[in-house]
């Protein structure tokens, strides 16, 4: 019985190898697309940047004295902002990053309008020495939708 089982297993393996050899391009495309689907999961785990919701952000601000970094452009910033936020537009982060040096030991919460631009600032913030970097999930829109306070002017 074991010999018969081994025969069928070897036959299946042989057929599978023959399929891979005959259709190597199809197998390569499937492997690459599968890797591309899985990569973001690994990338987020390896990244020093973590998403944080509005409630988690308020807890981090209140308990750990987190720095709030507004990465929006000046026109957006003047329309309203998270109280006590440091404003450095994303376009100026590399040139003005030294302004954040005094906050390096504290957690940093970066936000923009909807949360899309904040993640791109991660590499610049890591180079500045921040080890605890959070991105406000949903950005200022999520903050305002949650009924949190905004500063104007």
Spell out the key features of this protein.
single chain; 153 residues; alpha/beta; Oxidized Rhodanese, domain 1; 2 domains; five-stranded parallel sheet; 7 helices; 50% helix; elongated
Any overview of this molecule?
With 153 residues, the chain is of the alpha/beta class. It has two domains: 2-44; 49-145, Rhodanese-like domain (Oxidized Rhodanese, domain 1, 3-Layer(aba) Sandwich), CATH 3.40.250.10. It is 50% helix and 12% strand. The protein has seven helices and five strands; from the N terminus they run H-H-E-H-E-H-E-H-E-H-E-H. The protein has helices spanning 2-22, 24-46, 54-64, 74-78, 93-96, 122-127, 139-145, and strands at 49-52, 67-70, 86-87, 108-111, 133-136. It has a five-stranded parallel sheet with strand order 1-5-4-2-3. Helix 4 (74-78) links the parallel strand 2 (67-70) and strand 3 (86-87). The longest helix is centred in the first third of the chain and has 23 residues, at 24-46. It is elongated and about 80 Å long.
What's the structural blueprint in terms of helices and strands?
Elements: H1 2-22, H2 24-46, E1 49-52, H3 54-64, E2 67-70, H4 74-78, E3 86-87, H5 93-96, E4 108-111, H6 122-127, E5 133-136, H7 139-145
Parallel strand pairs: 1-5, 2-3, 2-4, 4-5
Could you provide a short overview of the structure?
By secondary structure, this protein is an alpha/beta fold. The chain has helices at residues 2-22, 24-46, 54-64, 74-78, 93-96, 122-127, 139-145; strands spanning 49-52, 67-70, 86-87, 108-111, 133-136.
